[in-house]
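Tokens as discussed.
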């Protein structure tokens, strides 16, 4: 960041449909963005970093879920949105705002955004005839369906054959503009996703409906020039980033704007959203970071399979820092991954109990036994160091954690080679232990963006002049 033109950092996640409470597949993305946001708060400062997440509350999927529950759409989405927030709070996701597309400021901004594009001549009325997946809330082409004619993401949902009058956005007009964007290697990450987006454009962009008639979908934001239509849910939802970013002064050339999202949402964020912004006359985001999917025990996570796990379930069993560490280290940061509770337990014991936790316990016990007073000043850590280079350059939190755990390994090596328990010379012992105490304090700072609770506990334990042993922060399980 210090070598480029940006002085502020704005990171977002995709916002989740409120047809059901989020599960661990959704939560991964929020923890990923949270770790990046926490890092930039330390690197640039609290006031120069903004982190947004929230819920996508309009559209037919949410409307029908409310009907099944016997509730009004507003009551239903209020409930799910609150439950989603609780899941994120359990994971210590430190969002600056949890936005809801039913928030009044967002509804106004979405309508204004549409009007700007309409006034620019990029929206017109026509008839759509084709395929629609209600699960994706997305119009589909035959190439996007499997051999049975079903959506690849929602194979149990019946594809709808629909014909309706809509307002269309001139998406095809922006093909050359989008290709130029995609030629910037950092615009879409990882590289494989960038190539997928280029391929999609080369197949030919078609203009996209950006409204639905109210007789089909009544739960939405009114189209400004035609109250018999509501905004298409994707047009509405994407504007949420602008709603908060613009209001808080983070949608300008001083800010690096990064969207994190799953691969199923890549096309909308990498191709539709920049075209919408260009049409309305606003800056486009700097990076679209696309991660893969999480499978559980080799199967896709879904309610129909009965394998949905909420973040709160894992935190209850393993603790928040263990869950965060596992997903940040082994999550689908570039490709799909398969996780299991057995693997989570193995990682917990190997990396946290026997790794970080054991190093902290060893040094604390040696320091307490020595009876020495230690310098209580804060350890000096550079958040511009190479340790964080993978995160700064490519948002690779997994590789950053590898670097931090090398520091823990180096500390263990120092302890084993110097054998402070056998040193008789008091001056030498204090020198060795002073170094090791300071290394623990440094490690506590290094892990702060990733394991905030563990970082705080270690800081509190090692802040004292006389350090005392304490109950292990990661007892074996």
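Sequence:
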């Amino acid at each position: 960041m210090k070598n480029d033109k940006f002085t502020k950092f704005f990171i977002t996640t995709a916002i989740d449909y409120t047809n059901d409470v989020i599960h661990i597949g959704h939560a991964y993305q929020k923890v990923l963005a949270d770790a990046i946001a926490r890092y930039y708060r330390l690197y640039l400062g609290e006031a120069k970093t903004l982190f947004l997440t929230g819920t996508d509350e309009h559209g037919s999927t949410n409307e029908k879920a409310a009907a099944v529950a016997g509730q009004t759409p507003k009551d239903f989405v209020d409930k799910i949105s609150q439950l989603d927030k609780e899941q994120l709070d359990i994971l210590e996701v430190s969002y600056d705002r949890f936005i809801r597309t039913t928030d009044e400021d967002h509804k106004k901004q979405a309508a204004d955004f549409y009007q700007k594009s309409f006034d620019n001549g990029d929206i017109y009325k026509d008839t759509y005839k084709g395929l629609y997946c209600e699960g994706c809330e997305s119009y589909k082409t035959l190439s996007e369906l499997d051999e049975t004619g079903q959506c690849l993401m929602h194979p149990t949902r019946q594809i709808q054959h629909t014909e309706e009058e809509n307002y269309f956005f001139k998406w095809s007009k922006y093909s050359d503009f989008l290709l130029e964007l995609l030629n910037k290697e950092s615009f879409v990450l990882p590289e494989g996703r960038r190539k997928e987006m280029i391929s999609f454009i080369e197949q030919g962009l078609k203009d996209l409906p950006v409204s639905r008639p109210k007789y089909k979908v009544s739960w939405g934001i009114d189209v400004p020039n035609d109250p018999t239509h509501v905004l298409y849910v994707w047009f509405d939802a994407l504007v949420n980033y602008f709603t908060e970013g613009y209001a808080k002064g983070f949608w300008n050339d001083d800010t690096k704007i990064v969207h994190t999202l799953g691969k199923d949402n890549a096309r909308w964020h990498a191709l539709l959203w920049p075209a919408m912004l260009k049409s309305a006359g606003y800056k486009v985001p700097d990076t679209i970071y696309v991660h893969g999917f999480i499978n559980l025990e080799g199967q896709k996570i879904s309610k129909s399979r009965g394998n949905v796990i909420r973040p709160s379930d894992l935190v209850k069993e393993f603790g928040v820092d263990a869950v965060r560490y596992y997903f940040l280290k082994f999550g689908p940061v570039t490709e799909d991954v398969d996780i299991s509770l057995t693997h989570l337990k193995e990682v917990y014991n190997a990396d946290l109990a026997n790794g970080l936790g054991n190093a902290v316990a060893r040094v604390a016990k040696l320091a307490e036994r020595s009876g020495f007073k230690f310098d209580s000043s804060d350890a000096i850590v550079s958040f511009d160091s190479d340790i964080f280079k993978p995160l700064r350059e490519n948002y690779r939190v997994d590789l950053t954690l590898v670097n931090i755990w090398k520091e823990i390994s180096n500390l263990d090596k120092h302890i084993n080679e110097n054998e402070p328990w056998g040193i008789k010379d008091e001056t030498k012992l204090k020198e060795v232990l002073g170094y090791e105490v300071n290394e623990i304090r440094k490690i506590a700072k290094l892990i702060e963006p990733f394991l905030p609770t563990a970082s705080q506990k270690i800081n509190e334990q090692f802040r004292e002049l006389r350090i005392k042993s304490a109950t292990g922060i990661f007892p074996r399980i």
